[in-house]
Model the fold of this input.
Amino acid sequence: MMRLLLFLFYFSTLSIIGQEQYKGSISFQKQFEKAPELKSNFAVKGDLNTLKRMETVHYKYTSGPWHYIYCTSAALANLLGQGGVSQVYFPPSIPKVLNDSMRLYQNVDSIFNGNAPLQEAYTGKGVIVGYVDTGIDFEHEDFKNPDGSTRVIAYWDQALPFNAARTPIKYGYGQVWSEADINNGNCTSTDNAAHGSTVSGAGSGNGLALNKNRGVAPASDLVIIETSFSLPNWTLTVADAIDFVFHLADSLNKPAVINTSVGDYLGSHDGSDPASVIIDSLLHEKPGRIVVAAAGNSGNWDHYHVRGDVTADTTFTWLEVNPSSAFGVPAVFMDVWADSVDFKNVKFGFGANDPNNNFITKGKSNFYDIQSLLNTTTLDSIMIGGAKATPIEFSCEEINGLYHIEIYFEDPDSLSLLYSFLTVGSGTYDLWSGFSIGLSKIRETNLPTAVTYPAIQHYQYPDSLISTVSSWACSEQVITVANYANQLDYIDQNGNTRTLNHTPGKLSINSSKGPNRIGEIKPDISATGDGTLSSCPQYLIDALIANGSTSLQAGKKHVLNGGTSMASPVIAGIAALYLEKCNNATNIDFKNDLISEAHADNFTESTPNFAYGYGKIDAFKLLNKSNFSPALVGDTLICEDLSTVNTAANNYSTYMWSNGSTKSFAESNKDDTLSALVTNSRGCRAYSDTLIVVKGTVPMYPEINNIGGGLVATPAVQHQWYFNNVIIPTGTEQYYNPVVTGYYYVKVTGPKGCYLLSDSVEIDIEKIKELEKNQFIIFPNPFIDNLQIIKKDFYTIEITIVDAIGRKVYEFNEFDETKLFASLDLAYLTSGIYLMKLKYNNSYKVYKIVKE
Done:
């Protein structure tokens, strides 16, 4: 009845609003009727101060007249009724899902499409992506080629027992299945946890199952490492996995990216542990290698990290007994790390306090100096009333310049006491524990006041920082990824729209925070994680169908997943696209470009920070950052020698010319269109511009004849005369009439631009024999194709040629007063004798000419 009354109240409110100029749309009313308490995104017009003041409304930002908010339909209906909102934008829509949304947030489809200024599309082809996870359901269509063969080229199941034929010799455990094993149906390993399949789908799924939900690198080759958390010293098995993938990639001459959506919340958190050292060395060893890691999902846990500042007063932190600890018995556990220089002046011990009796101290242990205890395990007890009450076991070691203390209270006498880590002296340390990982809750609330317990002023409180997973995820060489929400809703297997309880673009409350222990920014970048639908293994599909789960997407091939586990493969997929374009780039090249192209928004606020890292990434902008434009230079005209074409910058690593040459230059002796595909030192590919090469004809070697007071060159398509090595602007005819004493030569050019220069001739104007008045020189006679005429004075001449029977075969009226020379093209005439009539100044002359 209360629900009905609320509905009637809000509906009445909407009806009243409906009588005004602005009102909620039909779609909004339907949404309200269907799910009044479901939070959604809205754009509204109204009073901004009211929106910001409302506790039931999450105000995001404003653009123009619209305010963008996140709240329930009921809260918005209430605002409409009160007049705080005057208009709601809520259009009808048909939701579309799912990794398509993920690709949209990271602008990946622009890369798939090869949009300009990219010169080609990238899909991860030729790049290996390794997934260290729970395995993969390789029978899922998203992990197959169109012909049905597998995309998995190797599958190392680290949990399988030794097998002489399949266990990799270098590592000595697990079994490796080959691509042929999978295609032939011999591989017995698979993903029995679903995590590995969904992670691999987000990074590399090709979407063939339903023609949607493609991952970021859908054409990449897959190498699967099925890790086993039960293996001792587990982080080193991950280092082995990474070594395995990189060296397999080397054998195939391919670059590789490795995604690790797995991790350990304990450790030094600075990338100095042995597993990290191995991984860093592999990354330094050669280019074309990138490792990506999930940051962790502890953001919403109780605070489980303490940064301890040690003073001359005894500082302390209390931990609670976990009655169902990861050790199988009630216990307290602490993992303490410090730079050796920061802990050498610290003494530490342990104590017990009773929170039910004014926090009185029940007992303490001895205080210790770590330097005298290195590489030892110490057994001690907290003394209560002079008797040993709670056994303590702790070990001290130095690892790569760090002090490490593991502290374990097993099955304490009292589960109600608080157990403390005590320090005195000067220095700093970091301590991790945490109920959420099966260890001990660090007391943060229900503490005494300074009045009742004065020592509380020296209490070391837990915080939310340095909560990422440890080891390689904290290395400066590894890309660590935070998680923000992906799409808002999707259609489930039952045909219903499922709306998720998060704000797309906003950091997940579960995403772990940085920095690493030494203050470096972690995570490095953020990507979509929560609300991602990805490839689902068949065993889980069957179970979800049986119980009608809303987590299974319509089409029954993809399942909802989230966390930094799903954000990490997004960046790994982007790294694969990056290495497809720049296959010799290093992990630092990728990280630097990733950071430089990261952007902030209203959710991230100022970056870098310890939640989003350097921000969010636009993959399209990232790939365009490595663009370059090789320009071609060289001979575009072939005359006598080969044409040689080069790139303007001759510092590229490889060349592939359009004519097949792989040298740093291309040669041609014919009409040609040349271009080049080059790679730079990072292996980045780029296509040059195009250079058109023309095969020309070398003209007849030019000779200059001094005829009738003028200079006549041999015939050519173009002529250019020079005087004393200076071009004569008006000297562009076959004939030139010199007027100054000096040296003359001519440049003759053929039909496509090939040219030759004549020898220079000396002309003395005083010695030139001029033509007589009305004298003409006609040459050559007989002629083959062209007949030249030189006249004495600047007057117009009309030329007519007739054949032996008097038929007019040629007429030329353009030999005007501006010219002293004419060349007649008579190639079309048949061989024979002709008469040429020259009419000038009301006079004429007739010449017999012979066409050979």
Remarks:
- The chain has a mean pLDDT of 88.
- The CA atoms of residues 513 and 611 lie 5 Å apart.
